[in-house]
Amino acid sequence: MAGVLLPWVRVSPAHEGPVISIYHSGMGSGLELPHGLVLVPTVLLLSALSLAGYRYRRGELVVGAVGALAVGWFIQSWQGTFIAGPGTWVTLAGCLFLTAVAAIGLYRRRKRVKSTA
């Protein structure tokens, strides 16, 4: 969730020439974007369920994978004068980590079920 609080869009350091003084949504934080508005409630819901003792590995896997794809698309859409900022990369790392943890959990559960059968 830390990635949502960081800027998602910034001026490219490789850009030569004047920078147009335009403020894009996401230059302040990812909460200005639809991605942030969807990400925060999803993280809060998964955290609350996890604290309550429920582990929905399939749900975590879907959220992580879809989040990684959405953030990847966002990164690709910003080329030229403006590029993806640090919040985008932190969010992508979080989505990939969530996907990996959920996939490992599903694999271990499947392996445990097969060994008891």
TrEMBL record:
The chain crosses the membrane at residues 33-54, 61-83, 89-107. Keywords: Membrane, Transmembrane, Transmembrane helix. This is Uncharacterized protein.
